[in-house]
Amino acid sequence: MTYRADPARYGAMSYRRCGKSGLKLPAISLGLWQNFGGTRDYPSAFEILGYAFDSGITHFDLANNYGPPAGSSEELFGQVLARDFRPYRDEMIISTKAGYHMWDGPYGEFGSRKYLLASLDQSLRRMGLDYVDIFYSHRYDPETPLEETMGALAHAVHSGKALYVGISSYPENETREAYRILKEMGVALTIHQPSYSVLNRWIEDDRTIDACGELGIGMIAFSPLAQGVLSGKYNKGNKEGTRAGEKGSSLRESHVEPRVLDAVEKLAPIAQKRGQSMVQLALSWVLRRDEMTSALVGVRTLEQLRDNLGVLKNLELTAEEIAAIDQATAGGLMELHPRPSGWLR
Hints:
Elements: E1 15-17, E2 24-26, E3 28-31, H1 42-54, E4 59-61, H2 72-85, E5 93-98, H3 113-127, E6 132-137, H4 146-158, E7 162-168, H5 172-184, E8 189-193, H6 202-205, H7 208-215, E9 218-222, H8 258-274, H9 278-286, E10 292-297, H10 302-309, H11 319-329
Parallel strand pairs: 3-4, 3-10, 4-5, 5-6, 6-7, 7-8, 8-9, 9-10
Antiparallel strand pairs: 1-2
């Protein structure tokens, strides 16, 4: 059957301006990091993607290495674009990134002009696109001049292969410098994508979030649920069918140690009192800051997506609720900070 988008798709979603730009993003965006690779078939993928778009999610976030295997998420999304989403391309924000290992040899990762622009061309081919809406430097590369990395982003805009550019997991000083360099090149740094959750507050500790607010850079949080920890599912002690049970998972044992799970347990009555799930409370907390344009969620199932979208019914937190959340999580904070080898310290 030919897909027809729901005519009422924009009715329930909240859209927020991305910093000082003209771009607006949905409060909830969908990331294709780990659940839309080579093991996902088309029908189950489109069930989620179609429902997301019908619910007002206009932003789909990818990267060159998303899968597994690397590149397969973009390939699958490209199939969805060609078969079902093509009439709606101009209603969508499609982003991709480059920075992590993608191919062998000295030019297959980090922040060189060679790697970033070659990777962007590959991503466009995989998705069957002429341009992406947002192209990110996926991580800061201390061994490449920042002028070169930002110059590659500026070239992506000037060549028409990206409408906006962003950075991901850059600390405060590097964020400010990236903004300055791009501005001198006549290109705005539109968005920053950091890891951020009620258990992971590094952007507050090093004032990256304050820098973005000051400079007019929008922000979109990845892992706002701490890779599922804030859903409460790990408190039940069963890791089967979860990311913690997978070989090579980005979820580490330190993320599910007793002190962390105890903090999650203390959040449960706060969520219950608000009439929310644990997931919805966690998303409300991330979106409470004016600097935060969107929360980027990843889901395995349609049920998880529906739970995430339920946050739109109650986004506001009182000062008393925020204080209670801070007290509940004080002993369970993950001491994370970005580094060149990856975002986990």
